[in-house]
Amino acid sequence: MRDLYQRLAVSPEADDQEIKRAVANCQHSALRQDAEAVFTIAERRDVYDTLHDTVSDIGRLRARLGLSHGPHWQGDVANDFSLPPDHAISRHDELVDRVSHAVSLYNRWRRLRAPWLLITMLVAGVGIGLALGLTLCLGLLPM
């Protein structure tokens, strides 16, 4: 299906006068005939607009999923509603990445916690032992 608005270089919100002008200036006879058949009758334009919105939504969904036509379709009518792939990460994937990162940090902390805790306790014990030994040797503590 052709995107008549895109092919005529007008906005879907364009009024009837703009569309008539664009159709009259169209150099391609088959495109002009299609546009006249669709845009001259209000009911047909309403049906086309509904279909245009649906197919545009599908094009946005395909882009969001990273789907696009191959290079040989790029200039063809089949590519009228295709958008370039959208590489933005979805909210769900972003949350999964953040939780995975938090879990990996927690696991790393747990893995490193035991040796550091042991070293800290050992250093604290040695420090307290040295301090008590020095005070006893120097006679600073009353006996």
Structure report:
By secondary structure, the protein is mainly α. It folds into two domains: about 80 residues, Helix Hairpins (Orthogonal Bundle), CATH 1.10.287; about 55 residues. It is about 70% helix and about 0% strand. The chain contains five helices and no strands. The longest helix has about 50 residues.
What distinguishing features does this structure have?
143 residues, mainly alpha, Helix Hairpins, 2 domains, 0% strand
Structural class: mainly alpha
What is the CATH C-level name of the largest domain?
A: Mainly Alpha
Strand content: under 5%
Net shape: rod-shaped
Care to give the gist of this entry?
This protein is an all-alpha fold. 68% of the residues lie in helices and 0% in strands. The N and C termini lie far apart (101 Å).
Write the topology of this structure.
Blueprint: H1 4-8, H2 16-25, H3 29-39, H4 42-64, H5 91-138
